[in-house]
Amino acid sequence: MKIRGDLMINLGIIGTNWITKQFVNAGEETDSFKLAHVYSRTESKAQSFIDDLSKSNISISTDLEQFFSSNDFDAVYIASPNRLHFKQAKMAIEHGKNVILEKPSASNIREFTILDQLAHQKGVYMIEAARHIHEPIFKKVQEYVDNNREQLTGATISYMKYSSKFDDFLAGKKPNVFTTDFSGGALYDLGVYTVYDAVVLFGQPEEVKYQPEFLEDGIDGSGSLTLKYKDFDVNIIVGKTKNSYLPTEIYFGKKTLLLDNGGDITKVSEADDKKEIKEIPTTKSDNPMDSEAIEFARIINENDKAAYDKLFEYARKVNRILEQARMSAGLVFEADKEY
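The structure assignment produced for this chain is given below.
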């Protein structure tokens, strides 16, 4: 599926990993963003990233001040470890850049609020890259929930995937995604997708409680999160230390909506009380970031504040729920101690 934008935005990136490459490709596939500048701690990593994309004439910076002072890009996509989001986004905003932040935007709601206030002062956008809520397949789920909201009786959302970094952790190393130093763990990685599911589909919960399975250094390897709403509960299972093949289920009395995944949905079905399952036709791009790239570029190009405010309110609720969940479990990040 091809989605086309109208005006390509020059893009700077922080983070030379697979997810950054995917966003760069999505931006160019949809004529939304054009890579102009790469920041990395080492020039060799930046050059390797550029070569892997078969590109040329791309600027490289190994100094953040030099990077953000450049005039060759108008928006920056930040996909660094969670702990670094706040400092890097703050610098970007101070230099008048629009910011696209991989989720979660910040380590805590205090950082999120500071970035929000600064973005308003500088007149730029700060967008959290919750890519899956922009996909047509998620929109189909959202439409189904809206059309059957009176029968809604709860949900179970599951997203557990054995991390490629967990073997390193077991070997005594300290990958960023498994340390409180870098605001890692299951909840602040795969869990963000599931909380977005709940917020977009069901709204703001009244109560939040997280029960994690702690690893040796105090980070959560997996856990269960309960979001209590007025008339129903949403139960969430997340994990980076094991694989789960449980579907995500949304309940409507005798009917159940089945999603094959809580974060990367590829199939949606409806089941009735006779166990008859009917697949719901949907579409999905080969690159799951295509839809968010076209929407982010549209918001920036058209200065669509209404659409931006809606996305930002989702992000605010999600980041607040994440912190409430951590606090309910006594899970403290090093970033929390900086104030």
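Interim note for the steering committee: The CA atoms of residues 151 and 307 lie 28 Å apart. The chain has two domains: 9-127, 136-284+322-338.
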